[in-house]
Amino acid sequence: MAATAPDQTDQGSYDVEFRSVVKHFGDVKAVDDVSFALKRGSFHSFLGPSGCGKTTSLRLIAGFEQPDAGAIEIAGQSVVGVPAYRRPVNMVFQHYALFPHMDVAANVGYGLRQRKPRPSESEVAARVAEALELVRLPQLASRRVWELSGGQQQRVALARALINRPTVLLLDEPLAALDRKLRREMQIELQNLQREVGITFVLVTHDQEEALSMSDTIGIMKDGKVVQFGTPEELYDAPVNRYVADFVGESNFFPGSVASTDREGATLVTASGLTLRAPYSRLGTRLSPGDRGSIAVRPEAIGLWRPTRVPAGLDVTRPARLLNRIYLGDHSEFQIEAEGLGPVLVRLPKSDEAQELEPGDQVVMGWNHERALALGEG
């Protein structure tokens, strides 16, 4: 479900709007009839695999590319045909693009010194100090770039982008070069910074955890189109199809042919002959008998028990063999082989009695219908 342009009465509350935007590179439609609107002061992410159109969308906002069709507005003003240097946007690149021959203060103040008329040096110095305070690096103004850690370099790049007080800050996978722990710290820093400055942030990433943890809204892209636009909760709990459910979080998919449907959900028959039922996703498309579809079940929605301890009231139960258990601190992940379903991933909290199971054990897995979703293939 692609986002649509807002009503005309809401125009003033959006910082970025695409209306039926198309961009070709030769015979390839990199952006294919895309429409969305990003609320002022929000944190938005484009998420998708390589080649899906997310980076091209970012470059269209920046002005590095121009659309072949459609309208693009920033803060209510059309920017079609407007070059990058005249747009109220700044970008932080994956590799930061800092100048190695300059110290931190000179890097941060570089953009201000290129303005015409050029601000006074006292104003530049004051704005640099303010920007470095914002990213919590006031003590490093005289450092050289090579003397900084990866996280510090990223903050300098942010300060340099924010000093010009843009309407929109664009982030092109700025955390990709950081190790996992520092990456998580910088995700929190970016969220705090965005709330503090109140500027619209637009992030491009292929990291679903990063997008889910940081964003107010996310656009899931595929083949140049926005497949679904919504909050992290909507994308996780109400995916429009299997593609979104597979890309956001993890799911077990049990494909089959739709045998019957009603207003609430669908019943599928798998290749092994099992009959499975689930409700529709709240935002998903409805299925018809004969369609191909999947029953999607999140790993945390599935239970695992010894054969003698299976609780009553489950809608689906299957005998299985435990293949592997991975300890992850507050929870464990179990790889099992379920009869008629094949490989299944189960995620259980540390307190669950299944933690005492060992690879090779015979078990029973199961879930209730309401914890699953009937989805189209997408």
Structure description:
It contains 8 helices and 20 strands. The chain has 2 domains: 8-237, Rossmann fold (3-Layer(aba) Sandwich); 250-378, RNA polymerase II/Efflux pump adaptor protein, barrel-sandwich hybrid domain (OB fold (Dihydrolipoamide Acetyltransferase, E2P), Beta Barrel), CATH 2.40.50.100. The protein has a 6-stranded mixed β-sheet, sandwiched between helices. It is α+β, with helices and mostly antiparallel strands and 378 residues long. 40% of the residues are buried. The protein is globular and about 80 Å long. Residues 1-9 have low confidence and may be disordered. 22% of the residues lie in helices and 35% in strands. Helix 3 (121-134) crosses helix 4. It has helices at residues 54-62, 104-113, 121-134, 150-162, 180-197, 208-214, 232-237, 242-247; strands at residues 14-25, 28-39, 43-47, 69-74, 77-78, 89-92, 168-172, 200-205, 217-222, 225-230, 252-261, 265-270, 275-279, 292-297, 303-305, 316-327, 331-338, 342-349, 362-367, 372-376.
Draw up the topology in text.
Layout: E1 14-25, E2 28-39, E3 43-47, H1 54-62, E4 69-74, E5 77-78, E6 89-92, H2 104-113, H3 121-134, H4 150-162, E7 168-172, H5 180-197, E8 200-205, H6 208-214, E9 217-222, E10 225-230, H7 232-237, H8 242-247, E11 252-261, E12 265-270, E13 275-279, E14 292-297, E15 303-305, E16 316-327, E17 331-338, E18 342-349, E19 362-367, E20 372-376
Parallel strand pairs: 3-8, 3-9, 6-7, 7-8
Antiparallel strand pairs: 1-2, 1-4, 4-5, 9-10, 11-12, 11-14, 12-13, 14-20, 15-19, 16-17, 16-19, 17-18
